Amino acid sequence: MYSKKNIKHYWLMMAPGYIWLTLFSIVPMFGIVMAFQDFNPALGIFKSPWIGLENFRYMFSMDDITQVFINTIVIAVGKLIGNLIIPLIFALMLHELTIKKLVRPIQTLVYLPYFLSWVILGSIVLNIFGVDGPVNSLLSVFGVEPIVFFGREDLFRPLVIGSDIWKGFGYNAVIYLAALTSIDPSLHEAAAIDGAGRFKRLIHITLPGIKTTVILLAILSLGNVLNAGFDQIYNLYNPLVYSTGDIIDTWVYRAGLVELQFSLATAVGLLKSVVSFILIVTSYALADKFTGYKIF
Amino acid sequence: MKKRKWLLSGLITVMLMATLTACGGDKADSGSNGASNNTAGNTAANTADSKDTNSSAALDPFGRYEEPVTLHLVRSLDPNLKFDEGKSVEDNEFLDEIKKQLNIEIVYDWISAPADWDQKISLAISSNNIPDAAIVNLTQFKSMQKFNQLADSTDAFNSTASDMLKSFYESGGDALKQLVETDGKIMAIPATVPKASGMSQMWIRQDWLDKLGLEAPKNLEELKKVARAFIEQDPDGNGKNDTMGIVGPSKSGGLSGTDGNLYGLDPLFAAHKSFPLYWLENEQGEVVYGSTQPETKQALQTMAEMYKEGLIDKELLVRDDSLQPILDGKAGIFFGPWWTGYTIADAYKKDPTPDWQAYAYPQADDGNYYAHMAAPANTFVVVNKDCKNPEAVLKLINLLLRDEAKWVETGLGKNPGTSGGYPLFTVFDNVDEIEVSYDILNKYLKGEVEIDSVDFSTHKLLKDDMNAIKKLKKEPLDDFSITNWDLKDSGDLITTNLPRLVSIMVGDRPLATDQNIKEVYSLYYGQTDTMSSRWANLQKLEKETFAKIIMGSAPIDSFDEFVTKWNKQGGEKILGEVAEMSK
């Protein structure tokens, strides 16, 4: 099977990915020198004056940068856990569904929000949780005064995490469903004959069968701990929830593209990348240790 | 078997490539960008060679180049705009006109949707990939100047700007010069805006007031009473408790601004003589920052009480779009500048019941309405320092100013009009344009002025306005309630002219007639050195504190903490710089 002849087309298939990676991830990496410069676009990155760690010093002198990092990590970790568990539960329920005819329609339905951008979904979510929205109408039946959901600091993170899970769980469940179908059905049959009920079989056959997949996905998503989702938060946040909702990416956006402080924005972005890099290396080592997963 | 596998993977590869190129629109763009930049270099070199032959015609404000001159520009374009059959933003009547009259060819390096514009132009600045000329805001202009990307336009302006453009420039006075000149050099051509655009006023549903037997509220106490009545007494008569008092800014809006701030609460601040974001002089003659003054604290306290009582929109600063409750007929009061009339007139087309009228209320305790005024310009035409024909940029503006009214009259490029089709389009106007228009239109309706006796040479749109108002206005001619406009038989005029006329006759009436308006200007509208590094952060602090106080999630005393923090985190230094700059 493995010969030089039939390896060529694999390379061909990978080429677009590599071109994309080179153009958008490797080439722009040289831009990080801007973090150590007082960058002036007219002079370019070769001639802009060097200012050492001044940008970093300023960054850490700001009161709210710690809060911004905390917000990022809390939201990202919340999403990470939610995106691991909810799709798993959903996949298990779908797998156990006895009316097989319903499986496909349900899967398609929950898959839908995944394809919408946050610009659109943001509006939808804001309206659903608006003062005149369906959620408040429902609450008013129970005599609850209307709640301004997106104006509440304490509710912003749960709403962001929740809506992100809602958007993605249909898609994320696909991997689990694939893992579930790979479990040998004869195991289930044997257990059933031995008198194991549905729940017992779930605990002793299904879950151990997909354990490796779950652990692998969990470890690999560690690298994303500092990606709390710019698109989503940018479309949902407002000044009232800065204290719990302002993340590194939105901060960098306001500093870099609105106020044109390129160097400072790069410095913050670089710090984020360094932390992410450490996390990715760690998670790769962990993945290797616990599941024997290797890329190289 | 093997063959089939090859075929399959080949197919997949092709499909992947297709999706990649489809998704990678940006990349393709930047590719062609690079290419067109090369050609830019070439043509620039060519025109430089031919400059000698062109020089005689070059400096005349309307002179035609003998050899074609190419300008590389960028623009934002509303994707919903409709062009006539076969026409586009890159090939339309205006570009033909420019070619015919001036022999200038326009090439767009890129075109973006309005929503992406700021991001696109910022990226262009950061990558030093700027066009020959562009329209930018103050922050962008000042940054480009700092980065040494801009040409000194003094010579080009003196030699080639038309008299009309020069008169607009002069109408801005010293405040305008302070904004665009550095050491006596003109670094950008400011788009002077009508004074009226900087002032917010109260818009209120007159039909609701009449129905409930109320008068337009003159001061804060009356405003509270009216807002309460609008909420409790079912002014829309549908038997449901679904109306709101005062609409607030959306999540992308601001509580107050330095410009005509649509849906902002600026007049509520001003009624306390509080002017957030303004640099003011206090009684001791020191420069102070409006947002940190005790008056602002009082204003926030009043607003917090009003919010708690439900008089101000519950979804203040959270709402996705503040226009929606107005279109739905659920809101009775909002604050906005004269041009809000355009929005209101659009709503008339759908539902002609809401009769919105504008007032310079609520007044402060002393019976004055304090109106914060905008900078004399907030958009600027900047010229790249590598641009070979800076005077060509001025010619484009000259031609627009001279011929726009004529084009409107003859219907040239009617779809989508100059704003969609003309390169470097922005509104240049006399500072008092709207008040003059209000005055002349009123006299014209009363028969005190004849159309032939008006000098239109510095008023681009007035003639068209006069013709339209005769057809649109019904008796009584001095009452501009919605019922006194002819909405049935006026055809196209409702789309083309009604919005502007409502804006002038209703929206500018306060500024043109109210004697109690006191104008408040900022000492300084530019950006100091420290501001460029600290402002984003100070703004975050300010917005967060104000929003929380109003919505009750922070006590009013957190204002004092905000003032301390603001001073400590760079505010004090900025105050010093502003005092220096405004001397």
Describe the structure.
The complex is a heterodimer of chains A (296) and B (583). Helix content of chain A is 69%, strand content 0%. Chain A contains 14 helices and no strands. Chain B has 3 domains: 36-188 and 379-421, 3-Layer(aba) Sandwich (D-Maltodextrin-Binding Protein, domain 2), CATH 3.40.190; 200-372 and 521-581, Periplasmic binding protein-like II (D-Maltodextrin-Binding Protein, domain 2, 3-Layer(aba) Sandwich), CATH 3.40.190; 433-513. Chain B has 24 helices and 15 strands. Chain B has helices at 2-23, 25-49, 51-58, 93-102, 117-126, 138-146, 154-160, 163-171, 173-180, 206-211, 220-232, 266-270, 294-309, 323-327, 340-350, 390-410, 418-421, 433-446, 462-472, 493-496, 498-507, 509-513, 529-550, 558-581; strands at 69-76, 104-112, 133-137, 181-182, 185-186, 189-192, 201-205, 244-246, 279-281, 287-289, 331-336, 356-359, 369-372, 377-383, 517-520. In chain B, a hairpin with a 5-residue loop joins strand 9 and strand 10. Chain B is globular. The chains are: A mainly alpha (296), B alpha/beta (583).
